[in-house]
Amino acid sequence: MSFLHRGFRRGVAALGVLLAALPALGHAQEPGSSASEAFRRYGGQVLKVQVHETSSAAKASIGSGFLVGADGLVITNYHVVADLVTEPGRYRVEVIGPDGEPDTARVVALDVVHDLAILATPLRPAAWFTLSDASLTKGARLYSLGNPEDLGLAIVEGTYNGLLEHTLYPHIHFTGAINPGMSGGPALLPDGRVVGINVSTAGNELGFLVPAGYAAALLARSRAAGYRPPADWMEEVGRQMLAYQREYVRGLFVGGPRATFGRYEVPTKPAPFFRCWADRRPAEEQLYSIVDHRCSTDDDVFIAGDLSSGSVTLRHRYLGSAALNPTRFAALLQKIFEPGDEGMEGTETHLTNFRCRTRNVAREGHVLRVAFCLRRYRKLAGLYDAVVKVATPGDGREGIVSTLTLAGVSDESAMMLARRFLESFRWTK
């Protein structure tokens, strides 16, 4: 029998909530102002989420989740239960509370773009968390709860450091050690209000949270009258990704800054949330030099363990040489231009091979060599990865090879951005 199902334990839990709400006697410290107090008051509302492979019962993944109502709904990350979504016949999910007893769970709603999922469970808790979109100032104290490395429930104290700048949708920068297994757990204020959901880490106490407002919106949709979970979750993932990419690419390469390399003027920073950097280096016995200019964002949408999507990158490689003759320089440009996957990740399980078309395009009295490559997502209808490569014919002294990569877009969006990309090339002389 699971926790909070036994009458005695229900009574004890209710009594604990009541006592926790009373002022502490003989203490100058405000209730909830310390990590130990937060753990005591709220730890019982945090669960471990486990995904099992059905044939062997082996654990495929673990994470955390937290209760958000008397109806037993639990919020976690999408990536914690992604195996169940992508291969529903092979996996099952369960939640485990403080008493160590497992309960079955099922996915009832998900937001793949913000890495959120809602699970329905048979639990009927006496206490649960409240989601808050409270406005925070940098340095505000937060407590993150979860199950790091399957070592048991833990609490991490850290600080709110604002929102990431290089994303279309904001993530919270949390200074605290979020470790694997804590994904899906709550990050809360001292008074217990949840302001973020643990989602990822970059190590060195660089943690990231999904703002609680996105979880509140998903929860409201799941509780709306007439809502029914979709029959095919992968179809729903595809629908959400198509909606996301339409919003994401809508403003790319519309105006914006430009960079000049030699006699070429090219687009940079496709949207305000991109960041760009560059480096100049000599190459191969000083016969030529390269200026490498890159732009990208921190956006990346987890689909499965071996598939992420939603990213856009831009790269310009400007080459100059006073030593190579025109034939050798043109061969060098062609070698760099040769179309390929450009390091885009993905396996044959999820993606077809790239198919490329290459042709010459006239632009402002000049000729650009252009390759356009597409590969299709096997399980997400209407989604593609695209690579657009552009090269200028070299004159033995300078040339440029530019690459635009698009992960998880419709073919219409890929064509639209390729056209905008080409139309943004200029010559200064």
Give a quick precis of the structure:
19% of the residues lie in helices and 38% in strands.
Question: Topology of this protein?
Answer:
Elements: H1 7-21, H2 35-42, E1 46-53, E2 59-67, E3 74-76, H3 82-86, E4 91-96, E5 102-111, E6 116-120, E7 141-146, E8 154-163, E9 172-175, E10 186-188, E11 194-203, E12 206-211, H4 212-223, H5 233-249, E13 258-261, E14 264-267, E15 275-283, E16 288-296, E17 301-304, E18 307-309, E19 312-320, H6 326-337, E20 355-363, E21 366-376, E22 384-391, E23 398-409, H7 411-423, E24 426-427
Antiparallel strand pairs: 1-2, 1-4, 2-3, 3-6, 4-5, 5-6, 7-8, 7-10, 8-9, 9-12, 10-11, 11-12, 13-14, 14-24, 15-16, 16-19, 17-18, 19-23, 20-21, 21-22, 22-23
Please bin the fraction of helical residues.
10-25%
Largest sheet composition: 7 strands, antiparallel
Major β-sheet strand ordering: 15-16-19-23-22-21-20
Q: What distance lies between the first and last C-alpha atoms, to the nearest angstrom?
A: 79 Å
Mean pLDDT: 89
How many distinct helices? 7
Secondary-structure-derived class: alpha+beta
Q: Report the portion of residues in β strands.
A: 35-45%
| Radius of gyration (Å) | 26 Å
Q: What's the number of extended β-strand segments?
A: 24
Shape: elongated
Low-confidence stretches: 1-32
